[in-house]
Amino acid sequence: MVKRTPRQRRIWDNVGTALLALVLSLVVWVNATYQNDRPREGYLPESVPIQVQNVAPDLVVVNDPDEFVRVKIKAFESSWSRLTTNSFQAIVDLEGLGEGLHTVPVEVTCNTDRTVSIISSQPEKLNVRLDYLRTETMDIAVQLENPDDLPLGYAAGVPEVEPSSVTVEGAEAAVDRVAAVVAPISLAGQRSPLDRTVDLYAIDGDGRRVNGVRLNPQSVAVRLNIEKKLNYREVAVRARTTGHPARGYFVSSVEVEPSTVTVVGPPSAIAEMSGLISTREAVDVSGATRMLAERLELELPEGVSVLAEGDRDPQTVLVTVGIDAVVGGTTVEIPLQARKLGDGLSAKLSVSTVDVILTGPSVLLDNLEIELLDAYVDLSGLGVGTHQVKTLVDILVAKNQMLADIAVTSVSPAYVEADIQIAPTPTPEPTAELEPSAEETALPGARTGSASR
Asked: What total number of domains does the chain contain?
């Protein structure tokens, strides 16, 4: 046993005291820190994406497992504000797994703060189905859609595709279902050559899309020549009108259906035609007050006819002429009345007439009768005093249905002053005195009638 001197014992005592003080201060600091920065539990505001790792090179995931996991953690209060979804990693490790269905745990870790504890995750496990990976190289087929909607007189050439083949990759069962890889092109309304990039998709033997396969490339360049046949030509159609509508009306539109037609005939005749043809006759609009519709024959060169389309007569078109009334405006002065005044009250209005601006068909405004307009103020609910009330105008459409096309644009003044007072009590008229009868004017005891004997 080593015997220490008194000096050595004092040194060791001082060292022990210092160590004890250090431990006590550390305990105090930890306790204070814990009180101010308590840990709490809770779910992260956003879900963490799941990463599938270590899939064997000859296998592929064929089902659709969850792509995100909800994570519950325990962390100090000060750490929560710094944590994001990038602070965590959720991994499903498929190393060593073969073809078939597997239940694999989701492993969640925090990469930025070691003080964070993972309490739980939802889901905790994933069901993953693996299938053998298969790759096939297939030719690309251009699928011409809506061929019947190609304009008459036009023809589609042979499409060109660049590149001409595509690699199909996916689960063996999905690749086996692929019958073709197509690039769809719509011919509806096409009159000029096409040169565009088209997205590809895989289809099965019934023409349904096959999902779960990857195409490389995903799109191709398709060129398709749209040619106009030499003896066909598309021309516009024009229709004319003759005469004048009724007074106060005008021709608002002339529409032709169809507005363009495809003509067919000898190449020389087609080449000499202009791009516009007319109807043989004009639509007579004399005295018209409403829309007219007529089917008119086209004026075509010798040997040229319209290419039939549908069940209609190809040599005629439907011409529709719109007839609308000329719209005008006018100002009229209308007497102003008071309505719905309370019992026992009288009202005096600041004006006796108002100016009303009307708009509508000129033919109606020119013959408008003032008696079919009613200007008034509504005094319902108003008591004694001076009031500002809105001026109202009604058009008596019930007496003339054609007035429905007339509108009140403004009224001047828009508000009038109504002075409401208690109505004066009417003074009774004096009653006329009756003339006394002969009997009332006779002397007492006298008698009228025949003389006494």
From this structure: 5
